[in-house]
Amino acid sequence: DAKTTQPTSMDCAEGRAANLPCNHSTISGNEYVYWYRQIHSQGPQYIIHGLKNNETNEMASLIITEDRKSSTLILPHATLRDTAVYYCIVRDTGGGADGLTFGKGTHLIIQP
Amino acid sequence: NAGVMQNPRHLVRRRGQEARLRCSPMKGHSHVYWYRQLPEEGLKFMVYLQKENIIDESGMPKERFSAEFPKEGPSILRIQQVVRGDSAAYFCASSRGTQETQYFGPGTRLLVL
Q1: Tens-digit pLDDT profile for residues A36-83
Q2: Do the chains contact at B102 and A100, CB–CB below 8 Å?
Q3: CB contact under 8 A, A102 and B42
Q4: B5 membership: H or E segment, kind and range
Q5: How far is CA A61 from CA A58, B54, B86, in A?
Q6: Residues of chain A contacting residue B101, judged by C-beta atoms under 8 Å apart
Q7: What pLDDT, on a 0 to 100 scale, did the predictor assign at position B1?
Q8: What is the rounded distance in angstroms from the CA atom of residue B48 to the CA atom of residue B35?
Q9: Does A57 touch chain B (CB under 8 A)?
Q10: A98 vs B99: CB contact, 8 Å cut-off?
Q11: B95 falls in which pLDDT band (50, 70, 90)?
């Protein structure tokens, strides 16, 4: 079972910032938060990941709360091509099994 | 720098036939993962391989499914005696090492008639 909780769907206007929340209240100290997205019929695309500090790359920003029990993925200027299912994944870095556990994700719909 | 490559992109098989799905990892990656996405469902981890070794096959069905990652060549996911319930998208991912970021290929869509 996924260790994260995300809203089923969200809408965002084109050009606005899209803020996607994720709860991971049972996260442990050595677990990273990863974000992927899947545009219809394509393979999942890696977006960003972090441990405790906020992270930013060319695609998005990741804000992790101080207690690490939740995080927010921010797409600063959403476009129609950002319409996708976004998956928040908690990943153990302590060795052993390395398969990712995908939940149901958030279906983000960018409105023109 | 080419990404993860999978072929074929689409595969049609009749019940009872064998399906072979291939995955070439990104350059410099020696770890391969296979996932399955059934229609209208999420991705499920199947198996994790390094060169010539299966590390974790906890998500693989016990029968008819096998995977390999030989010293030379692509990783192969093999499904024997396919049934209609095997119809799904099969995605491969690769990484440089354990707990490194996984990058996904475009998938193979298997349709069993």
Answers
A1: 999 988 999 999 999 998 999 999 999 999 999 999 999 999 999 999
A2: yes
A3: yes
A4: strand B5-7
A5: 8, 35, 37
A6: 34, 46, 49
A7: 57
A8: 9
A9: no
A10: yes
A11: very high
